[in-house]
Structure formats: C-alpha cells, structure tokens
Design a protein that fits this description.
This protein is 49% helix and 17% strand. Strand 1, helix 2 and strand 2 form a beta-alpha-beta unit. The termini are far apart. It binds nicotinamide-adenine-dinucleotide and zinc ion.
Length: 339
C-alpha cells in the first residue's frame, strides 16, 4: 500500500524545483477533522494555508468559488500560489475550477480521499461547479501540474456507502478495460480488501484514454459505459425522494447496459451471465417494470448527450472491451429491456 509519505515526498521535491512558497490546502470539514496534520511535513518547505469547506455536493457552487477567489485575493496571492485539493470529487472539481480561473490560472494538484475521486474525479482534467438545475453546468478542462500517487490508507475512514459507490465506478473500468481485473473482483470477499494495483489500473486506463481524447470528443465516451441508464436511475431515485450515491446508480446502469449489449448481440451470453451473477452480490438492482422504464426513458431523453429519440450508448463487446457511440432508438431500448 502506498503511504502518505510518498505524495509528500513528491510534493516537496516539486515545490523546491518550482520555487513554490505558498500552498493553500482546499479540503472539506470531514477530511479536515480526520486528517488535520496530513500535510504538516510540508511546513518546513513552504507556508501552508487551509481553506475548509462544508462537506457535500452543495459546496460545489459559484458562491463557494467566489468565496475562495476572494480569500486568495485578500491574502494577496499572486499566480505563484499553489492549490492542493485534498478531498473527494466535490473538492477536486471545485478546486480545479478555482485554480483554472484565479488570475487566469494557477498551479494545482489533487490528492483524492474517496475511492470515486481516486479513480475518476481527480483524473482527467474536468473541473466544474453545479448550477441550480444543472450538474457540472459550468466548468473547464484544466490539468493538474503534478499527479500524486494515491494513498489508499485514506479509504479506511470512508463510510461504507461511499466506498461502494466508488466500487461501482471501479467495476466499470474492469468491464470496459480488463477481464483480468473483473475476475479478480469476482474473487474479492469484501470491498475493504481492494488492492492498490486495482485502483492504479483504473487511473492509468483513464489517463490513457484522456490523453487520446482530452476534450471528450469521441473515444472518451467509452468511460460513460453504464452512465446512460445509470444517470437516469440516479435522477429517478432523486425524484422519488430516495436519492442514491452516483456509483450505486452507475452499478445498476452497468447491469442494464451489459444486458442490452448481450441482447443486441455484442456481448456473448456466457459473459453476460458472469456480470449478472456478480453485480447483484454487491449492489441492489432496480427492477424495471414498464412504468419505471417509461420514467427512465424521459430522463435519458433530457440528457444533454442524447438527441431526440436516439440515445447514445457504449456497448460491451467482451468483458474488458467496449465500443462507444451507438445511437439507439428509444423504442428499441424499451423492447429489449422489457422482453
Ligand atoms: N471531474 C470528473 O471527471 C468527475 C468524475 C466523477 C465524479 N466527479 C464529481 O465528484 C463528485 C463526487 O465525488 P465523491 O463521491 O468523492 O463525493 P464527496 O467529495 O462529496 O465525498 C463524499 C463524502 O465523503 C467524505 N469523505 C471524503 N474523504 C473521506 C475520507 N477519507 N474518510 C471519510 N470521509 C471522507 C466527504 O466529506 C463527503 O461527505 C461529484 O460532484 C461529481 O460530479 C467528477
Ligand atoms: Zn460516474
């Protein structure tokens, strides 16, 4: 397991090389309470400030961004200040956005503390804040200046639901990128036994895709596997007053999009069976009645990635290999999922 010392060692060398003297650590109240002295080793080399946000998605807003911009300006920080995002995806997305805009851009890094952020949000250069009715409604593509090794020991304090949510995204990487990882996950007794090399596979896989398609014009859509139906289930549950974590909705999306892949003849039947056996062991899967499906379809139609009656899907060809950008008529989705 990688220790926190490694990230601090790399940061120290980087700050010295780049002559960085002022570092602002952006974090949320939970992470700050659990790990108040995590970066104290850096104090020898630079001046550390902490900016602590209320925990939760509602902090990912323009109001919070303004507060942080004001804070940086009041402290008279110039473009040489370094922002260190220490938290989950909320902190990474918001911090990346602030870094990309303060004085037209300052240097920053993510040191993620949730499984979801380690394998997804902290990687790939997408930053953003939510508008009142539009998640990630405003944002930038802005890449961190140093990629730190993850410290999976931080996951020990993560609530079980959050860990399982990250695990949903991790299963996605296995399905689209590595049959070997999938088999390894099938043998896992508990999510708590996840090994760092499984996380590293996901991080490297995403980095590799993002390098080829940084601005999300085509290939990167492969990372949306499970998300077309997953997002619809996430919205459906939120509307029903029983919201669920993103990765738990994605896991259900993986289930139904694998089923669609098999029904359309992309994915061999025996591989679908393995997926159908594995996912319900870790995740509750919503039953699709005609009524539920109708509601999901409306959410899919409203998704910005889709046009009219055609819904964009990534399909699995095999466990470990996916192909993006199929446009499927709504009627076909309904027929296939109800029969
Ligand atoms: N930029 C991208 O590519 C990308 C990709 C996926 C998700 N995201 C974004 O990520 C966000 C979700 O991220 P998240 O799931 O990490 O949520 P989060 O950052 O809100 O963290 C979830 C909860 O866990 C707590 N927490 C964090 N680390 C902890 C630790 N080590 N121990 C105990 N508690 C801890 C937090 O305080 C919070 O209450 C969303 O805003 C989503 O849009 C971005
Ligand atoms: Zn996701």
């Amino acid at each position: 397991m990688m220790s926190d010392k490694e990230a601090i060692k790399q940061l120290t060398a980087y700050f010295q090389r780049e002559n960085i003297r002022n570092v602002v650590i952006l974090t949320d109240e939970n992470v700050n309470r659990l790990y108040p002295d995590y970066f104290s080793g850096l104090q020898e080399f630079c001046q550390l400030d902490h900016y602590v946000l209320p925990a939760g998605e509602s902090s990912k807003s323009i109001e919070t961004a303004v507060k942080i911009w004001d804070y940086l300006a009041e402290k008279q920080y110039d473009r040489n200040v370094f922002l260190l995002n220490f938290g989950g995806g909320m902190v990474c997305d918001l911090g990346g956005f602030v870094a990309s805009t303060y004085k037209r851009g300052i240097r920053f890094a993510n040191h993620p503390t949730t499984l979801l952020a380690m394998i997804d949000a902290a990687v790939g250069g997408k930053t953003g804040i939510n508008l009142q009715y539009l998640k990630n409604g405003v944002g930038t593509f802005y890449f961190s200046d140093i990629q730190l090794p993850v410290d999976s020991s931080l996951l020990k304090t993560l609530p079980d639901e959050e860990l399982r949510s990250g695990f949903g995204e991790l299963v996605k990487y296995a399905l689209i990128g590595s049959e070997e990882l999938f088999q390894k996950l099938c043998k896992l007794k508990s999510i708590n036994d996840l090994e760092t090399d499984s996380l590293e596979f996901c991080i490297n896989f995403k980095r590799n895709i993002v390098e080829k398609d940084p601005k999300d014009n085509g290939l990167r859509h492969i990372l949306n596997f499970g998300h077309t139906i997953g997002h619809a289930i996430e919205s459906y549950c939120a509307e029903a007053g029983t919201p669920i974590a993103h990765g738990l909705a994605v896991a259900q999306g993986l289930y139904y999009e694998s089923l669609l892949s098999a029904k359309r003849g992309h994915l061999p039947q025996n591989e679908w069976q393995q997926i159908a056996e594995f996912l319900p062991k870790h995740f509750q899967i919503l039953t699709l009645t005609e009524d539920v499906l109708l509601k999901l379809v409306v959410f899919m139609q409203n998704d910005k990635k889709n046009t009219g009656n055609l819904i964009n899907f990534t399909f699995l060809d095999h466990i470990g290999h996916a192909s993006p950008n199929f446009q499927i008529p709504i009627s076909e989705i309904q027929n296939l999922l109800l029969t």
